[in-house]
Recover the amino acids of this structure.
């Protein structure tokens, strides 16, 4: 295209835009939009796991940890429960080979505690932002 053709095309385009004008919404458009926004209900947050559920989970994990630490030998644990050993666990002796020093146990417990505390703080900060 030559420069003259482009100028003619541009002039035609401008004239068409000016003739058509801008579309304007109806007088009540803004009011209708605002009413529909106000009618929408706000989202009520309901946690997937309730507070008492977390307490039960924490209690179960604590109980399992205490049982595993106190009764590290499987046969002692089964005898304590009064269960007669009918299943051969000799091929599943992975747990009996695991031994942690006191320092390692302490570090794992502290790390777990700090992670839980950090989760609590992050949750608290997150909900403060939306209040």
């Amino acid at each position: 295209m030559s420069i003259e053709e482009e100028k003619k095309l541009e002039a035609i385009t401008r004239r068409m835009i000016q003739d058509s004008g801008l579309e304007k919404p109806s007088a009540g458009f803004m009011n209708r939009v605002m009413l529909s926004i106000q009618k929408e209900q706000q989202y009520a947050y309901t946690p997937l796991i309730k507070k008492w559920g977390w307490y039960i989970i924490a209690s179960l994990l604590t109980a399992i940890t205490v049982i595993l630490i106190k009764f590290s030998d499987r046969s002692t644990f089964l005898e304590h429960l009064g269960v007669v050993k009918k299943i051969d666990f000799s091929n599943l002796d992975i747990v009996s080979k695991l031994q942690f020093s006191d320092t390692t146990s302490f570090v794992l417990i502290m790390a777990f505690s700090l992670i839980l505390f950090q989760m609590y703080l992050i949750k608290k900060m997150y909900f403060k932002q939306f209040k």
